[in-house]
Design brief:
Elements lengths: L1 H9 L7 H16 L3 H15 L5 H11 L3 E7 L3 E7 L1 H9 L6 H15 L1 E10 L3 E13 L24
Antiparallel strand pairs: 1-2, 2-4, 3-4
Helix pairs in contact: 3-6
Pfam families: DUF2507
Protein name: YslB family protein
InterPro entries: DUF2507 (IPR019642), NO_sig/Golgi_transp_ligand-bd (IPR024096)
């Protein structure tokens, strides 16, 4: 179900309404969740990562773009620390329109993607919030393997069709 759901909507990502997403994300959810909003969104991001596992950093970048979360850049990787930058129009727009936009959904998503990829406990945190970019770090604890872990099959990332003749013009 998850792969079919993703495939159906990823191809139409550019046509989706930004307004509908922002109304839900930044107007409705904070009111419903109250003071617990950040924590719940972090765990919601982890849950989404379990439903939409990706196979590689390139797929992770594509998924973030398609989800409308912004452009994800892998800034560094080591055995136990992954760092990311989230930038682009969605980040600039949210930061300009909302006093304190919450990026814990994305942070939780990154934490769980790392946990699934490395089969061990992983936690993520925001390390910097700037006007045009968000920086996040994921700590991977190889000393704490996941128990009863049955990794999900990664989704098949939908890639936009690229017209080879279009680049020649």
């Amino acid at each position: 179900m998850t792969n079919a759901f993703y495939s159906q909507f990823a191809g139409n990502a550019a046509k989706s309404s930004v307004l509908s997403v922002e109304i839900l994300r930044d107007a409705l959810l904070p009111n419903l969740l109250g003071d617990d909003s950040s924590g719940i969104l972090y765990w919601a991001g982890k849950d989404l990562a379990r439903k939409f596992p990706v196979d590689s950093d390139a797929d992770l970048v594509t998924f973030f773009d398609q989800a409308g979360w912004g452009h994800l850049v892998v800034t560094s990787t080591s055995n136990d620390l992954l760092t990311y930058e989230l930038n682009g129009e969605p980040v600039a727009r949210r930061n300009a329109a909302i006093k304190n936009p919450d990026y814990m959904l994305e942070t939780g998503f990154l934490a769980e993607q790392a946990a699934q990829r490395f089969n061990c406990v992983s936690e993520a945190k925001l390390t910097a919030t700037k006007r045009l970019k968000i920086e996040m770090a994921v700590t991977v604890d190889h000393k704490q393997p996941l128990t009863n872990h049955d990794p999900a099959t990664p989704i098949d990332i939908v890639r936009p069709d690229v017209d080879p003749d279009a680049s020649e013009n």
